[in-house]
């Protein structure tokens, strides 16, 4: 069962989902069962993840930060649509690129690179790879999937499967900005829903500390503040679009958990749109990478 307190609305949603193996459905959005992960696993969310990938690649100025040299193998934990891993497979055609997630990415229709492989797995249950199997281990945006108490163990696993002299890179966001009442309400509801599953939405700033505790060396940290809104050009429009699709994605689960109701949530979304139009906000991301000694 899920490691958080059940509420009456969860039971209603579970009844609604009966018979659909592996997934739960809240108001037409599909979620993975038996995981603390709160975001949906459906086409709309996959579109958001691809969009977010392009935004982050643009904001971070590339797919990776450490000096990878002649890469022989890389692992992406919690790969989502597999976009990052597929692009790495193209950039490093000589390397074996493995993408792991609870659920396989959907087929894109395009042929997959021969050096790309998907493996189903659960990062909370240990990684199904030998010690030192990869030159580069990457994990991005799993904040909403990993309970706070599990982070040190997850980071140790990332370090374990990385080869000596190989690199581990983490990227996680800061909590959503709190502007006026609409943005604050949305951020607060996500925080409440997350806390019920032991997830701390403030954990992003600790990525370098997790790498240090996992025994990694030469740790580099970067905080990238992505501006939000049309005043900040193309990147600002992308960040604002991602903000609204993210909160739309989280909507049904938060309502199903009884954290708030649909009317209040939708009113806060509309209010947040007005607040974002009026103010200048940023969406910070924390990136850290370290070398295995
Ligand atoms: C917000 S998405 C990020 C996807 C990708 N890393 C990216 O940056 O585009 C989080 C992903 O983690 C996966 N996930 C959630 N819990 C997981 C777990 N325990 N083990 C492996 N993957 C998990 C979800 O299925 C989802 O694809």
Bound molecules: S-adenosylmethionine
- Compute the number of helices: 8
Query: Order of SSEs, N→C?
Result: HEEHEHEEEHEHHEHHE
Termini Cα gap: 38 Å
The CATH homologous superfamily:
Vaccinia Virus protein VP39
Structural class: alpha/beta
- Count all strands and give the number: 9
Q: What CATH architecture do you see? A: 3-Layer(aba) Sandwich
* Proportion in helices: 25-40%
- Average pLDDT confidence is 91
Explain briefly what this protein structure is.
The protein is α/β, with parallel strands linked by helices. It is 38% helix and 23% strand. Strand 6, helix 4 and strand 7 (162-173) form a beta-alpha-beta unit.
What's the topology here?
Layout: H1 8-17, E1 23-26, E2 29-32, H2 43-59, E3 73-77, H3 83-91, E4 96-101, E5 116-120, E6 134-140, H4 151-160, E7 162-173, H5 181-196, H6 207-213, E8 217-228, H7 233-256, H8 262-278, E9 281-291
Parallel strand pairs: 3-4, 3-6, 4-5, 6-7
Antiparallel strand pairs: 1-2, 7-9, 8-9
This protein binds S-adenosylmethionine.
The site of S-adenosylmethionine (SAM) has 20 residues, from α2.
What does this protein look like?
- It is a single chain.
- This protein has 293 residues and is of the alpha/beta class.
- It has 8 helices and 9 strands.
- The strands form 2 sheets. Strands 5-4-3-6-7-9-8 form a 7-stranded mixed sheet, sandwiched between helices. The chain has a two-stranded antiparallel ribbon with strand order 1-2.
- The longest helix is centred in the C-terminal third of the chain and has 24 residues, at 233-256.
- The model is unreliable at 1-21 (pLDDT under 50).
- It binds S-adenosylmethionine.
- The site of S-adenosylmethionine has 20 residues, from helix 2.
């Amino acid at each position: 069962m899920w490691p958080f307190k059940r509420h009456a609305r969860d039971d209603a949603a579970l009844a609604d989902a009966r018979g659909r193996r592996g997934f739960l459905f809240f108001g037409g959005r599909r979620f993975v069962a038996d995981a603390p992960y709160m975001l949906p696993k459906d086409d709309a969310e996959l579109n958001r993840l691809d969009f977010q990938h392009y935004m982050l690649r643009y904001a971070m100025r590339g797919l990776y930060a450490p000096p990878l040299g002649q890469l022989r193998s890389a692992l992406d934990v919690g790969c989502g649509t597999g976009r990052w891993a597929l692009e790495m497979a193209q950039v490093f055609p000589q390397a074996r690129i493995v993408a792991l997630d609870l659920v396989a990415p959907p087929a894109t229709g395009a042929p997959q690179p021969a050096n790309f492989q998907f493996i189903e797995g659960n990062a909370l249950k240990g990684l199904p790879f030998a010690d030192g199997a990869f030159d580069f281990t990457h994990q991005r945006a799993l904040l909403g999937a990993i309970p706070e108490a599990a982070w040190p163990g997850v980071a140790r696993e990332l370090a374990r499967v990385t080869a000596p002299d190989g690199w581990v890179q983490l990227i996680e966001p800061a909590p959503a900005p709190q502007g006026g009442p609409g943005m604050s309400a949305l951020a607060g509801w996500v925080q409440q829903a997350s806390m019920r599953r032991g997830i701390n939405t403030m954990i992003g700033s600790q990525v370098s500390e997790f790498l240090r505790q996992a025994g990694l060396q030469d740790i580099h940290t970067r905080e990238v503040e992505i501006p939000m809104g049309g005043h900040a050009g193309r990147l600002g429009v992308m960040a604002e679009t991602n903000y609204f699709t993210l909160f739309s994605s989280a909507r049904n689960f938060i309502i199903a958990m009884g954290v708030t109701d649909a009317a209040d949530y939708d009113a806060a979304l509309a209010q947040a749109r007005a607040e974002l139009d009026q103010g200048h906000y940023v969406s910070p991301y924390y990136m850290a990478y370290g070398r295995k000694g």
